[in-house]
Amino acid sequence: MSRALISSGGDRRDRDQQGAGVDMSTDLAGVVLPSAVLTASGCAAAGRELDAFMDITQLGAVVTKSIMLKPRSGRATPRMSETPSGMLNSIGLQGPGIDSFIENDLAWLAQRGARTIVSIAGETVDEYARLAAKLRNIGGFEALEVNISCPNVADRGQVFACRSESAAQVIQAVRRGSDSRMPIFAKLSPDVTDIVEIADSVIRAGATGVSLINTLLGMVIDTRTMRPALAGVTGGLSGPAVRPVAVRCVWQVRQAFPNIPIIGMGGIRSGHDALEFLLAGANAVSVGTAVFNDPGAPARIHHELAGLLSDRGIAQLGEVISYAHRPEVDLGVSPLEPGSGFEDWDFISE
Q: How many structural domains are present in the chain?
């Protein structure tokens, strides 16, 4: 089905008028994006599939599926399972490898005119360094997202993101291998005691900002077979069930680091959800699991968010970033209601 057919309905035209006067741009580590809504890594490959349902060039950026140095077939099936409020996946970072990715996916995104954030993953620190070096001379993308929620095969399978030392080692290697001007976002796992400690370690190591959060480790047992539902036994939990955890992580990291750029993600399926992340301190949001039942979700959420801001008399998206961190003041009205006078406050934003 063509994009023209999909976008021809009256409801779509009405939706596109929501918040038409709101500046939805955001500054992400010096990169100005026309929208604060991105795709989330792992849920739409390099965006080709979603481009049939929406114009991906209108999004803030496409965050690609994490790419590894060599082709990878991923884990055995079954490797996905629905949960009451989300999804459990154990894909195993299936992908074509960096050379094929550069030749096919990255080239297509550039030709399509989409802004791109490339997500990379590796099993050793050296693999991350080599990926960064490969991409350094290629260009055609705005930032790197470093998926450090992978097991480190050189260190007894410990997940990089769960220890500040190993997380920092990866980011140091990527920073050394990258152009010094390239924004680097460390994608952190919520499966830690203190996410602020991990964030501090990667920032000190050279990360420009952080992406919060990756999936939570979970498990499902099939009561019919009485065996684990996934061939890999455990998997990553995503969807609405993880959203309160993700918002908490964004809030804590923003509170500790008022000025770093943050990409927030985890169970976002509406404009209200996106607004919650922005209020907590995110500069942009990534939409992932929602696209499995609504491939046009990122575009829909952009328009819903614009409508919510317009309804509240907000002219620029940056005005709500970190708003929830402002001291409570009795204004007599909700601070996000039209006419509240909130625009006179000095907001924390990038």
A: 1
